[in-house]
Amino acid sequence: MEMNNQLMEVAFRIKEMREVCGFSEEEMAAKTDITVEQYREYEMGTADFPFSFIHKCAKAFGIGKTDLLEGKSSNLSSYTVTRKGQGRITSKEDGIEINNLAPLFRNKLAEPYLAKYEYREELQNQPIHTITHGGQEFDIVLSGKLKVRVGNHTEILEEGDSIYYKSSSPHGMIAVDGQDCTFLAVVISDDEQADEQDIEKTFVTAKAEPNLEAKKFIETEEDENGILKKLDYKNEDSFNFAFDIVDAVADKYPDKLAMLHISNDKTERRFTFNDMKKESARAANYFLSLGIKKGDRVMLVLKRHYQFWITALALHKIGAVIIPATNQLVVHDFEYRFKAAGVTAIVCTADGKVAEHVETAAEGYGELKHKIIVGADRDGWHNFDTEYKLFRSIYERTADTACGNDTMLMYFTSGTTGYPKIAVHSYKYALGHFITARYWHTVQPSDLHLTISDTGWGKAMWGKFYGQWMCEGAVFTYDFDRFDASEILPMFAKYHITTFCAPPTMYRMLIKEDLSKYDLSSIRYATTAGEALNPEVFYQFEKATGIVIMEGFGQTETTLTIGNLQGTTPKPGAMGKPVPCYDIAIVDPDGNECAVGETGEIIVRTHEKIPCGLFKGYYMDEEKTNEVWYDGMYHTGDTAWCDEDGYYWYVSRIDDVIKSSGYRIGPFEIENVIMELPYVLECGVSAAPDEMRGQVVKASIVLTKGTEPTEELKKEIQNYVKKNTAPYKYPRIVVFRDELPKTISGKIQRNKL
Asked: What CATH topology corresponds to 239-427?
């Protein structure tokens, strides 16, 4: 409460000074280098503002920063006293707290800071990130141990030790020896105009771009605000994720955390990159001993078991094609997939009836040569856990190692209608997810990232594997059977999860909990994809956590193609803007680009180049491939419109458009309105046949627990939609259901509503 009051006081002083100086909100937004909308939030005190904003406001008003922060001018006396704990916090990052010890002294020749660094295990085996600024610096350790890098030199400072150096030399520091470190830093500027905004960068080095192994294959260009403007690939024709990323990081930082795994029984396992290198080598040698070879198609049904990552890396190394699949498949699903993909081996969980379903499906399919089980013994199956450990932990890359355009991965599409197709991806696909992790999830090497997804879904590759490890961050995996918000929410604080991604369905479940009961302060960034995000969910999550959900869009056939990337300002309900490296447009049925505000199909132009991340085509189905990829364009089958600012707004799948009385109605808009009602848990809108109108709008609704489904409630919902959309869009049919039919990837099956 005290912090909120202070924020409001500062905000009030900023507003008062703006009015005194005769500046408009638009003028102040320009002077502070932010949007007008963001400036208004800061001035109203509804959003916490960074120190740089205070600095720019003070400069615009011609006063000192202390005038705004404290409501009084800095002292002009010969001395000031700062009592213990009364310094001004100028920077408070994850694990770092910096206090200015002389905030009230004017015309300082030096800036004294009390710095507190948390000990972080994940930072110990990676290079210390460095920055530069003008002047000189003096640091003395008060408690703990500090590892300081200046240029190419590294020193360990213990209590009482000090260091003095030119700040123009690249420098940085971390706490070491298993304990937090407190030190006094005195920064002497050689520029009378320099201030805390510049100097605080000395301490917050975690945001500096690390020297990633992925940069051997990727070139990026950012603007002055860190917003990605351009991304190009290099050496991609020789790229193999297992060797070029995982093994390379292991060689550089063998003890760096790659995955923190929590099993269903809450057993904790920590895997370093070196662990992943060695265990995947054992598994590769093991698979070769069974006769699995380059080009073989291997199905993986492994839920969130840690063995999935070991197995997938091993198959990448030997060049076998992995086919992720969910444990929700039943006999006829396996029968179809075995035959359609030509599966020769399967590695699956011992949980449930998966192995039993596989055995039944294999009775009519003679090409399944190897059945390998994880987590138990079973007659007629190889036991992965006991057998692979007998093999050598070294597996070397060879001249014919699979890479580049070789097939690496095959996904079965969701299949909302008809049989699912098989999207084929090359080894370049992994490179396409660098944007996903670095510029959408914003993963840094020190992060622990959680994406909620089963490994049978394409989303797992988006958020639990390729991109996160290319950013050299760690992934958090909880191997649960059923999503339970009250069980997962405490894990954020317990394990210090920093970045988070989940589909909108999961966010809807989260906001139904009392989020005030949980410590979610470790989360610094949240994203969503998989289906369109209802604005109501966006607002409710932000209200509860203060975190803005950054939406993204892509398909099984692509990586992230449209998104609200790092540094950009999202519009609630909008997917964002096309990402660099994908040439995206919205076109009409004739292939002509749509005007602003006009709904059309999202396409990827491929005339000039095919981006890393776009699929190769549908396996053994040239006809289906040609239906979506022709005239130099890949047709997504998803419709959207673009606003005057370049933001894309999702409408529906082409097949989902409701044609009623001459109107074309997108179901998502109606779902958004219905989701605003507090008693609605989930909603799916579809078309129902009608003799007079052709089709009418039908709303299938799941109510929150305790809400009675009545005729009066139906009428209330219908009237609400009439008032909040064009009247012709209201649902003439409303049905209440216990649950909505969904694909195995969690998307609503509108054709079954």
From this structure: Rossmann fold (3.40.50)
